[in-house]
Amino acid sequence: PVTSNTIAAAETTGAATSDDPAAVDPRIARSRRAVLAAATELLVEAGPRAVTVDAVAERSGVAKSTLYRHWESRTALLIDVMSCNVPALDTPDPALGFRAALRTMVRDAAATMGTPEWAALMPALMSLKQHMPELRELSDADQQHKIGALAAVLDLGVAEVLLPADIDPLLVATVLIGPVVFAILGGNLDQVDAVAEFSVARFIASYTT
Predict the structure, then answer these.
(1) Mean pLDDT score, 84-90
(2) Cα 205 to Cα 209: distance, rounded to the nearest angstrom
(3) Which of 49-53, 127-131, 137-141, 159-163 has the highest mean predicted lDDT (pLDDT)?
(4) How many CB atoms lie within 10 A of CB 6?
(5) What is the enclosing helix (H) or strand (E) of 143?
(6) What is the DSSP letter of 190?
(7) pLDDT score of 20 more than 80
(8) Which helix (H) or strand (E) holds 107?
(9) How far apart are CA 107 and CA 110, in angstroms?
(10) How far apart are CA 77 and CA 51, in angstroms?
């Protein structure tokens, strides 16, 4: 399976400026979408080693010569695959206040991660990260972005005198999202929303009761 995030991101990857051919030529954009979708399918089905240039070209129907015009190497392609599939996490409106903002953030994350497509993709991306040290920088940058978004929400709790000023956002992320990931990896997608709600409720209660 290929996530909708993959397709949407593939449409815009490399298309941010008019200097990029993909931004002005729909045929190039279609080729990129096809290659990224094929590479993602192969990754989910058989792991990183299955994502070879030959296999991607055969699955996508895009010639190897065209593929190499988009990506200089298999590594570059796999980096794009991971980048396109990493889910976004937005900072909720501060006007919501701490409790509602935290619930909104965790609920949105669980809604994205709890889809069958993402449940299938998550182990593959984890394996890809272990398989390719080159992805460490991309993964670390994504984690820092998400931890920064969570920190902004926790700051609301500090300002409302509900949380201690020295609270660790990474530790909080582990406490809140860890159970969601556990439910997904265990195949319990029907419990993801409930797990997320329970985790947030218990976390808030531990500081406010």
Answers:
(1) 82
(2) 5
(3) 159-163
(4) 21
(5) helix 136-159
(6) G
(7) no
(8) helix 98-113
(9) 5
(10) 9
DSSP secondary structure of 2-22: --HHHHHHHHHTT-SSTTSHH
pLDDT at 11 over 70: no
Q: Which amino acid is at 143?
A: Q
Give the pair of three-digit tokens for residue 188.
């319990």
Amino acid 208 reads: T
The residue to which tokens 């055969």 are assigned: 58
107 or 16: which leads in pLDDT: 107
Claim: this prediction has a pTM higher than 0.85: no
* Residue 27 · residue 5 · CB < 8 Å: no
Q: What is the pLDDT of residue 38?
A: 95
Which CA distances in Å does 181 have to 41, 102, 187?
Answer: 21, 17, 10
Q: Provide the 8-state DSSP code for 165.
A: T
